[in-house]
Structures are given as C-alpha cells and as structure tokens.
Design a protein that fits this description.
With 252 residues, this protein is of the alpha/beta class. The chain is built from seven helices and 20 strands. The strands form five sheets. Strands 4-1-5-7-6-8 form a six-stranded mixed β-sheet.
C-alpha cells in the first residue's frame, strides 16, 4: 500500500512541474463603483454615432456602475477649481473626455487601481486625469503629476475622419468578437455589421452581407442568409431569413 504522504508529495511534484507559476485569481475592481466618481467632459464631436452609440455613450459604458457627472463646459487650464465642487462626493475622481470611444471598462478600473494602490495624489492619463478628493480640496495647483501611459490606443481622441473610421472598425470587431464568444457563427464577418445593442442568441448562423441594427433580437437557431437588413426587429427561434429588409418587424 502506497504511503499517503508519499503519494501527496508525488502529486504536488507533478502539479508543480505542470504549473511552475502560482495561479492568482482575477483581480476584483468592485471597490471602484463605491469609491470613485467619473467626470466626463463633453466634446464637440461627443454625439457622433459609432455602431449605434454616441462617443459619449461609449465612454460612459467604460466607467461601469460608478457615479458619473457629464460636464458641457470645462476649462482644463483651471482644472482644480473646476473639480473642487465634486471633491466631497467620492474618494477618487477620474476625468475623461467624451471623444475617446475606444476606452474599455477594465482599462479605467486598472488606472484607478494603480492610482489608489500607490497612494497617489494626481495622475495624468494619455487623455484624462485621476485625482484624490483630499488633494483637490487642499491644492492650489497641480505639481508634477505622475504620468501613466496605460493603454494609449484606448485613449485615442477620435476627431479626424481617419480616426473615426479606425474607431468604427475597432468597435465593430469587438461587437462581433463578443457574439462569436457566445456561440454565434459569422460567415464572412468583414461583410457583416452588428449594432451595439443587438442581441443574438447561441446557435445563430449569419451569412455574409447582413446588417443588424437598433434593438433587434435574433433568437437561437435562426439562420440569416445573405442580403438582409434587420432594424428594431425580433426574429423568432429557428427562423430562416433571406434577402429581407425588416424594420420594426415589417418587410419593406
């Protein structure tokens, strides 16, 4: 009979050989929603629609569930005075701009986590800022803020035509990748367009040259053959659709 201690040691050695590095659980950013306030500054092009949402909406989504204040006017040269009225609401304040639609939630949370874990007072992001509320209340000027070049591509200011085109391609691909990860089959995906708020259930097959927009829902096991435009329409389970232009459930 094998000694239990010897067996356990043998198992541990095998596990150690297979997994030489310690496995660490994913970091939780739940505290961000409780301790942080997002100040989002509108920009002249904040209302530009990209894949069914405005640039401002994409920035708001990146802030998750944390409280948000949208400012129409903001003097970046007098930033401390602009932010002091909000310094009593939360422990940390992140300032973002409404023309950076490529921002993602994990990047915003990571920036705040970096800031808090190092007990910083002021930090300059590629396009934006993070401040501690206590610093905003006591400081007269920003002195040598830490600069953190976290995910600079996500802080891209989208203004010029080529930037808008690039942002559209990135966000469109993120949407398609999300649906593929949920079991949706996209054939010739470079010819398929899916808006941000579209719901597509598992097992749906989408052929090339399909456009799905608005609050459309494509239920499971549907087959969208080539040449459809579907807007604000629910396509029921198992339906085959080909060369249709459906708006609010009506074929036009």
């Amino acid at each position: 009979m094998i000694d239990e201690m010897v067996l356990e040691e043998k198992i541990n050695q095998e596990v150690s050989a297979i997994l030489p590095e310690t496995i660490v659980s994913a970091k939780s950013f739940d505290w961000v929603d409780e301790e942080c306030l997002a100040i989002i500054v509108k920009q002249p092009i904040s209302d530009l629609q990209i894949c069914g949402k405005s640039q401002l909406d994409w920035v708001k989504l990146a802030c998750g569930k944390m409280p948000k204040v949208i400012l129409d006017n903001f003097n970046e040269n007098n930033i401390l005075q602009e932010l002091k009225p909000y310094a009593t609401e939360k422990k940390y304040i992140i300032v973002l701009f409404g023309d950076t639609p490529l921002l993602q939630k994990n990047t915003v949370a990571s920036a705040l986590d970096y800031f808090s874990s190092r007990n910083l007072s002021a930090m300059k992001l590629p396009r934006g800022f993070v401040f501690s509320a206590s610093y905003l209340l006591s400081a007269d000027e920003i002195f040598a803020p830490v600069r953190k070049n976290i995910e600079p591509d996500q802080f891209l200011q989208v203004v010029r035509p080529e930037q808008i085109s690039y942002a559209f391609d990135v966000i469109s691909q993120r949407i398609k990748d999300y649906h593929k990860s949920n079991g949706v089959i996209l054939l010739g995906e470079n010819t398929i367009f899916i808006d941000a708020d579209v719901e597509i259930e598992t097992g749906v097959i989408v052929e090339p040259f399909n456009v799905i927009k608005g609050n459309s829902v494509i239920e499971e096991e549907c087959y969208l053959k080539s040449g459809n435009i579907i807007v604000d329409t629910v396509v029921r389970k198992g339906t085959v659709v080909e060369r249709k232009h459906l708006v609010e459930g009506k074929d036009i």
